[in-house]
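Extended Data, panel c. Modelled sequence:
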Amino acid sequence: MAMALAMAQRHTHRRKQALHKALGLEEKPIRLRAHPKGRQVSAKDKFALHDILGGPARQRTLLIEYLHQIQDAEACLPLHLLSALAADLNMAQAEVYEVASFYHHFDVVREGETRPPALTLRVCNGLSCALEGSEALIKTMKDVLGGNIRVQAVPCVGRCDAAPVAVLGQNPIGRANQSAILAAVSAKAYKAPMPDALDYKTYVQQGGYQLLEALHQGSRADEAIIAALEVSGLRGLGGAGFPVYRKWNILRQQPAPRYMAVNIDEGEPGTFKDRYYLERDPHRFLEGMLIAAKVTGISAIWIYLRDEYAHCRQLLERELKALQAQAPCPIPEISLRRGAGAYICGEESAMIESIEGKRGVPRLRPPYVAERGLYGRPTLEHNMESLYWIRDIVERGGHWFASQGLRGRKGLRSFSVSGRVNKPGVHLAPAGITVSELIKGYAGGMLEGHSFYAYLPGGASGGILPASMGDIPLDFDTLNPHGAFIGSAAIIVLSDKDRASDAARNLMQFFEHESCGQCTPCRVGTNKMNQLIAHDQWDQALIHELSQTMIDASICGLGQAAPNPVLLVMKHFAHEVS
């Protein structure tokens, strides 16, 4: 690179000499730069990077994967290795730095700064864990562990059913307390245990992949699959609720090559359904994914998995290897990508940016990802659970799934239930069930000594409603008239021991922390909102004005939905804030 720069400078110098001679001007000497601008990369840095990443053949789009490998090896991202990586990828050092500093799970260490401890204890301070005393646990563990182990408060880690949750290295500790954490430290239990899931061999023995094989052989028609999905009423289960059959039809009309991106970055506080299904039956999801790929003519697939699910990553790596080695029919290339701790990457276009090795910031639309998504190609984007149901719907018939609903609704919903209930967890129930029925019939009722006070019907973004509105059917569109929505069906139950205003403060702090910062209404709005609701009495007129600006002008759903819990607290729990 230095040689190329010097040659370019000499060429420019000769042109200037000719110009000066033609104009009769006095020539001024030009000093040629011996090295490119910026931090110089030494041979030692290059060798150190090679030891971590292996051979020199590297791709720009795998930047985040390389950063993960360096972080895993060094427990941080030393600046000299980032410079070496930039040189290897022929990128500006600033480009690498901006990606590395964007994601929460990367620790960039500049020259002269002290490296963090090799081991980190992350304690969730999401709403479900906060209800169970995680803030006090964070303070206690900082005192107990001192500086030997870094203790961090982090957003939701996707285990709200076992709150409070701490993650030691990559090992999640449910129902965490000081004793359990110290026992894990003593045992050096830093790795996530492998889930006891249905493996490839067993899944095939139980009839798995027969539907996919029949589809490839022509005994099942693509149009019949889409017709079954239309009858079923299956909608996207990541939160948006777009009809699945319509999404597939749109993709089929786009020019080839077409790609698929699968979103398993469930960072919404209160949501853990995707993890639940992955830990038990990953091939049911993978078969649904491959059926979608066959019907829509997909040539390559990327699976984007949140970094907090290290155990699921190990499982998917193993099962994808088994599937690819013994595939029952031709399948597209499948790549597994690792998130890096950014809630915003749950937004489809931000996820695509991250898969491409960039900062996870949402794209402006149009064009939509179905027209121009991954690497500029038409892309089918799906939540993992949406694909999980494909095989059952086709084998049992669309009417089977549609008939499961209540009160005129269609299908089943996987409710992630946490908070003040006896049986938190994923509860599969009919669409259209009410939260009162869900608590009583599935979640074991309220905890002893607690009375139902309020609930979040759709995680942090879905708003907060009072118990008096506990008879609203839970499904897409049914909550919208009340200023709330179901989203990914994350139900957090509050009791008379809680305050809805405190819940709103917790959620708004989450939104401020997770805003990507791209647009001013969200970046500044979440910060200002936190200042306004920090007081016992809220300036409700100003909050309404700020909320409307965020809703109207934010680029993506994060900023648009962030005011929901605050607005509903003022509407239904005014006694707490006035």
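The chain is about 45% helix and 15% strand. This feature is highlighted in the accompanying rendering.
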